[in-house]
Amino acid sequence: MKYLCLVYSNELELHSLPDSPKDAECMAYAESIQGSGRMLAAEALESVQTATTVRMRNGKMSITDGPFAETKEQLAGFYLIDAKDLNEALQVAGHIPAARVGCVEVRPVRQLNP
Amino acid sequence: MPDVAVTARVERVYREESRRILATLIRLLGDFDLAEEALHEAFFVAVERWQRDGVPDNPRAWLVSTGRFKAIDALRRRARFNASRPLLIAQLEALEQADWSDEDVEDDRLRLIFTCCHPALAADAQVPLTLREVCDLTTEEIARAFLSTPSTIAQRIVRAKAKIRDAKIPYQVPTLTELPERLDSVLRVIYLVFNEGYSASVGAELTREELTREAVRLGRLLVELLPEPEVMGLLALMLLHESRRLARTSACGELIVLDEQDRSLWDAGMIAEGCALVERALKTRRFGPYCLQAAIAAVHAEAATAGETDWPQIVGLYDVLMQAMPSPVIELNRAAALAKRDGPLAGLTLIEGILQRGELLDYHLAHSARAEFCRQLGRVDEARAAYERALELTQQVPERRFIEGRLKGLGVR
């Protein structure tokens, strides 16, 4: 079953806390998940300063600078994985290096009905 | 007309085995509601079939097998509405008797408890789900016990079951690496049930026996299935608290504090069982907060009179407990014990320190303990103010009556 693991953390602290992971560690973890056959996709994201939000209402597209909402913690990256069950997904998510300084939301992917 | 003896036998099997059978069906069918339906249909068939063919040698296996067939029938009837059913039906048909042999049965109960207490489930759903699925309480009974409504409880249970299904929480006993945190959740749920029964948070009754009984039963089941030190510690703690039930309240429902309890009313059997468990647990040297709290309760239980209580040992145990599980409430309880060893002023100083830090300001027991020490030191005005503060903070009728009694004892302002 597919799960999306959304990594959240306070951007201002993500890279500067004593326990913060360096890029090398993040890449190594991604490789290990790839090696275990569970990886479907994973990316780190640029800062929320670079975000743009778009909406379409009544045929009119509106574009605003910034994330959809101002939050204490921001989306830092994601993993899309294939796991046997929630326990397995939680183990993968919990060991994402950024989980040490942020948190990871784990949600099952919904199969759309044709 | 069904034979009375057969019906009685079926009822006995239900009483003794239905929880085990349900746990196995849940594992095999992967769905709580399907399993419950299957369970009931299997027992229904049993009444008629056992009369015709005699009671089977292994009633449990027969009921699981029958339940499985009933579930397949039910799924077939619904297959039109759900595309995933054919696969499930095929899997169920392929199961063999070996898949529910006796050795697995105890594992199934353990799996069920761990699943109902999975930390991924809403905190307020774990207790009702466990009471419903593991203890077979009805939603009405659970609602009554927690002073909620059946629809609120039912909603929580339904959401929890939906989460188990949609997020695919597996029916599994956790692996060794997962076990410490998962076990924490199970112990927390059992202790919540016990505490709710032991000192009901709102209302006229001080205790709700059926909840403490269920908690102790769950604790016993867990010790049987998983004899870890903290599991033993929790059961010991519950037994030692329970042993004082009759002495805790007077005939008219008044609260009697530990110092003033008639110790001849303490249940010696529970005390013996509790103390033995504590000893066993402490010997493993892998004990934690539950064992330590149980050890403190055991020291109280072993004192023939209040005056013979080994307070220095209790303070020592609290010192260790504070390291394992630092919390202001534990600090408060330690202060009360310390006062017994070193006098009320020492206790008062500690409690005032906690309150000055801004902790326990809304905890009625902190204020009533402070009031008690002020009273003992002859500081009547301070004692009165503290008792009045405590009174503002508790809705529990016996506790309120107790505090009002103490206020009266201080004399008129």
TrEMBL record, chain A:
Tree of life domain: Bacteria
Residues covered by the YCII-related domain: 1-112
InterPro entries attached to this UniProt entry: Dimeric_a/b-barrel (IPR011008), YCII (IPR005545)
PANTHER family with a match to the protein in the record: BLL7171 PROTEIN, BLL7171 PROTEIN-RELATED
Record-stated family: Belongs to the YciI family.
Annotated protein name in UniProt: Dehydrogenase
Organism: Pseudomonas silesiensis
